[in-house]
Amino acid sequence: MKENIAAPKRRSLGAWALIAAPYLWLLILFLVPFLIVFKISLSQVAIAIPPYIPAFDLAEGWQAFRDNLSELSFENYIWLTEDDLYWKSYLSSVTIAGISTLLTLLIGYPIAYGMARSPRSIRPTLLMLVILPFWTSFLIRVYAWIGILKNEGLLNQLLLALGIISEPMVILNTNIAVYIGIVYSYLPFLVLPLYASLERLDGSLLEAAEDLGCPPWKAFWKITLPLSLPGMIAGCFLVFIPAVGEFVIPDLLGGSDTLMIGKTLWVEFFSNRDWPVSSAVAVILLMILVIPIVLFQNQQQKMSERDG
Amino acid sequence: MTRGPTWFNITSLVVGFSFLYLPIVLLVIYSFNESRLVTVWGGFSTKWYASLLQNEQLLDAAWVTLRVAFVSASIATVFGTMAALVLVRSGRFLGRSFFSGMIFAPLVMPEVILGLSLLLLFVAIDQTRGFWTVMLAHTTFAMCYVAVVVQSRLVGFDKSIEEAAEDLGCPPVKTFFLITLPIILPGVIAGWMLAFTLSLDDLVIASFTTGPGATTLPMKIYSQVRLGVTPEINAVCTILVALVTVGVIAASIVTKRQQVQRERDERAAFGNDMT
Fold first, then answer.
1. What would the 3-class secondary structure string for A38-57 be?
2. Residue B47 CB: number of other CB atoms within 10 A?
């Protein structure tokens, strides 16, 4: 990151073009779409194609713009606060994502720890094994759990055969299945940054602690855990943020009473064809996520500055 | 941190990796099941694979998906590599942090938001939806992944070779193709592969941005999965998993070999300097 501090050289035309091409692409296909979502969230639903009345149209000049401004409708947002489906969806999305993140951390930490402590020669292979499922289709990995968790599925068959339970457990179409799905799908996101920070940990610190008579669990608590904190935080953000807006997992594994905002938005858009309301849902979801996203980026920046 | 493996570490690795792999292994096994009931084993059979070949809708969807993935991964690799160069090499310019924000945001943004916003853009500019809109949407989020992968490669890069070339009067574009690109090539290839598989997998963004005649394979799988688990879907999934696994392992072996070769070359070059 050092070259950024140096005074910028005078750029040639080519260097400007290099910056402009990806910049423009993202402006047009990432930023502008968000502005459009925001605009449509302020317009009214209509039975038409597309199914909304435009809120304001810049082509009609300043006067028209001012007229429109006074007609702006916050109805969709008021609607969101009045119908408790929406705030319940937001709340339960955040709760489900939070619980799943904690579970992922509990399962992922021992894996990352075991990897970082394994012999150096097998570490690249283990790393590869963690990354590999990440390359396999998300949809397929979620689908694989349906066959396992069903009432007559493999898990129940196994438990019945072993005599642990006497009748099949209902797991599929409950929130438990959603937790399993999220933990399973996002585990690599947590293990990778955590492994990176555990692997960098200076072993001599632990040896020193041991020499001074510190029991292993205390050394872990006082040294390993605090030093792996940046990796833990990065991993948790990487699980939590996308999990809040998850659609596929609650739709396929969850039940009809599993409320998650990604699913609510999908239904509002595809089944009810209410584009303005689904836009408003998206705007609020984005506002909820802006805080963790900004926190995450700051933390990443701090980490890369320290390394650089 | 090297120490002898303890029982705790071995157990957590074994349990962790079984958790990661068991569901996929079961899925693969049951794709060879004779019985239509997915959870009852009725003997070994490859009949579901044969019936796939007759399913024209599925084959069409697979063809659309491969085309979208190929085109979008290729464009995303070009733009993503440019973005990575900008992030690492261009120094300060107006809106730099805004630019890096736009690169990192799509990595964590919920797909429903990306899909909805892109669809509304296409509607606003009156673009008929289909192959091209899905392709543009995939390129947009995939280029951000490519940028991150290539960026990590660029950061650990000896700048002095580039500077030497430029001091000797090599124009920047030529320097890039002769020196920078060969060195970051493993990152660029990994970026392309990542973009390709992301596009291959994507259900949510494709569902929003697609139109008639451009149903992708994940959309097809999703609509069938909603009706229930079938061995046919298991067979499709098995083929996809096999393709990705072979691709990733092959690529990692190739890059590993290249790296060893390059290190050997570098050592040889430095050895010659000494004498």
1. HHHHCCEECCCCCCEECCCC
2. 13
Q: How far apart are CA A185 and CA B102, in angstroms?
A: 25
CA distance A68 to chain B (A): 18
The token pair that represents B223 in the structure block: 């609509």
Tell me which chain A residue has its CA closest to the CA of residue B146. A22
Q: Is B37 helix (H, G, I), strand (E, B) or coil?
A: coil
d(CA A133, CA A155): 21
Measured between beta carbons, the chain B residues lying within 8 angstroms of A128 are 248-249, 252
- Cβ partners under 8 Å of residue B259, min gap 6: B186
Q: Does B211 touch chain A (CB under 8 A)?
A: no
Q: Residue B143 and residue A25: Cβ atoms within 8 Å?
A: yes
Residue A20 CA to chain centroid, in angstroms? 29
Q: Which CATH class is domain A84-307?
A: mainly alpha
* ipTM, interface predicted TM-score of the complex: 0.84
Element containing residue B68 per DSSP (H, E): helix B56-89
Chain A nearest C-alpha distance from B71 (Å)? 16
CA distances from B127 to A6, A49, A266, B95, B132 (A): 44, 13, 22, 29, 10
Structure tokens belonging to residue B219? 């959309």
Chain B touched by A140 (CB under 8 Å) = yes
Per-residue pLDDT of chain A (308 residues; tens, 9 = 90+): 344 444 445 677 778 888 889 999 999 999 999 998 888 888 776 655 566 666 555 555 566 556 655 656 777 788 777 778 888 899 999 999 999 999 999 999 999 999 998 888 888 889 888 988 888 888 888 988 988 898 888 888 888 888 888 888 888 889 999 999 999 999 999 999 999 989 888 778 888 888 888 888 888 888 888 888 988 998 999 899 989 999 999 999 998 888 899 999 998 888 888 888 889 899 999 888 888 888 887 777 777 776 64
Q: What is the CA radius of gyration of chain B?
A: 23
User: Residue B104: its chain A contacts at CB < 8 A?
Assistant: 297, 300
Q: B118–A29: do the CB atoms touch at under 8 Å?
A: yes
Give domain limits for chain A.
84-307
- Nearest by CB to A203, from B2, B24, B93: name it: B2
The full set of domain ranges for chain B reads 57-228
Which class in CATH covers the domain with range B57-228? mainly alpha
What span, in angstroms and rounded, lies between the C-alpha atoms of A27 and A24? 5
